[in-house]
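Troubleshooting: if your tokenizer reports a length mismatch, compare your output against this known-good record of 617 residues.
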Amino acid sequence: MKTLRSLLLPAVLLVAATAHAQPSFTGPAPVPAVVEDAAARRAGYLARCDEVIKWRVGLVKPGEPATFGLAEIAAKLARREDAAACSERLIELMKVPAGDMFWMFPVTSIAYLGRDQLTPEAKAAVREAWRTYFPLRGDTENHWVMYYTTMYLMAQLWPNEPGERWFNGKSSAEITAESRTWLLQWMDLTTTIGQGEYDCTHYLGEYSIPMLYLSVWAEDPAMRQRGRMMLDYVMADYAVETLNGIYIGSHARTDDTTVLEKWNGLASFFGWLMLGNCPPTAGFGGWGIYFAVVAENYELPEVIYRIGTDRASAYTHFERKRTRHRWRNSDVRNAPVYKTAYVTRDFALGSDQGGLLQPIQQHSWDLTWAVPDPRGVHNTIFSVQPYYGPQELMMYFTEMPDYMPAAVTFQGKPTYIAESKLLGGSPYEQIFQQEDALISLSDIPAGTNYEQVNGFFSKDLAKIEEDASGWIFAQGGRAYIAYRPLAAFEWRPLEKGGKRLASPHRRNGTILQAASAGEFKSWDDFKAAVRALPLEITLSPTPHVTFTSLRGKKIECRYGAAPRVNGRTIDHGKEWKLFAGPYLNAESGSRLLTLTHGRLKRVLDFNNLTISDAVVP
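Known-good structure output:
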């Protein structure tokens, strides 16, 4: 990345002004760069926030009420304009509330932004809606964070009111106590054993928006501080696992679109807004407006900005997360998740350990390569054991198993039971990553849906060559890729382009070795180097691979056993901290995160609710 060492503030403002001619999600892609000047960096951030708000206001068409919704009201109130029209329209919208917790936080933002702008009638309409409309709490971590944050803030807005004034029959005091207890429990879990719905390509917004609201609107100084610290925490967790603003590696949840087009998630909006190195998603991610209307109250710490944009060299980063709550088919309520990411300028390889870590939308590993403009590009390669079944659904959901697999496909998860699926976890997949090399093994019982491995090969790969050695060589951007299926396969076309490597064998797996093009004199030299690497593969009685990587590490993986590197057994439980690497470090159970970049150091201490910054001599 080039460094802008002499960027002037007027130049940033000029670019921001001209960018309004077209929204950034349709304009040129940003060129990844480090903005050295803090004032220029802040001005660019505020200009992007203003662009989001202005764009949303511009969607309102006189005489067309459908164009004047909650998002447009929030945008206008943030600009302190058309308060009378906002009030009139809000009264109408409060007559037919819908959307549960996704209704709650837009209305909360409007209620606070409009405290000194809305008419008494509009405020009364909002108050009445919170008495008569019963929004569901939802059933996932992001739902609960939104629900309890908004309940906390709205009970604060209307204190000392009895239960009959609230949809749930609880008093303002009871709501405050319940919401505070849940939020503190969530923060404690996250800072001791990891987030449950971790590193999601979309739900970064559903965590950051509530924390921003707490940091701005909570009257209790301790809760306000917690909101600010958790917002830093979530942003740091995101920044360290990005490649030019794109979330890389494994995710607790993604979807059928974003698993292929890695950029196409709400997280990329934050890459654009916070880091300035990624184009925003269409419509600024939809929910992005609800961050933007209050975003001027937050300033991304420089150390997090640097972690996301200024990497001197390749690095390995480790994280420990947790599964969401398990209700059945497990002796552990929150099983640990062990993540690894290897990030370079040209590509990033990231993974978890495999297994059923999340329901339905788990993505366990991939390699993502850098591209000048990620929009519409499938800049990734990975494989998956396409399992589905009631064991997974009963583990994480409380419904009865008879109808669940079929029902899931009608609830926005159309590929869940498909043989061609490229999304989801499997109890029969075991993964280990050592820097830029990865081994995935599967030992699939007979009768499982499905007895195979699917590999995704992108339409945007510059080269794909099947080699007589058994390796498949590919190139994406400046990433050289060696992909080794462990069993026979056939190619099948994909509707969205590219092709699927379908390997219908129960004992199976994938080896992947990546490298930057600049590490080799030529493409042929890379292929020769990989062919020369020591490799032993045994599939019976259970898959077993011994492979020496380009980094000279001898990796031994046997399905059902702990991996070994250079003869040393890897104990995930003992070796994986909450965060470990050159930029983020935290011991499990510590409630303390240390962020470092060069001489910059920031410590988030949730034990004492303190933030400390230092410049190391």
